[in-house]
Amino acid sequence: MSEDIRDELHELRERNDREIQGLESVRPPAIEREGSDARGAVTVRIGPEGEVRDVRVAHDWRSGLTDDELAGAVVEALTRAQSEVAAEFLTGVEELEDQELPRARPMPMPQDSGEVFGRTEPVTPGEAERLIGELWAEVEQAMASMEASLDGFNARTGSARSAGGEVVVEIGAGGEVSRLELEPRWLARAHPANIGRLVTSTLHEAQSSVLRGFGDVAETVRAVQETMQRVGDPYTLSRRFGLTP
Question: Is the pTM of this model over 0.70?
Answer without folding.
Answer: no
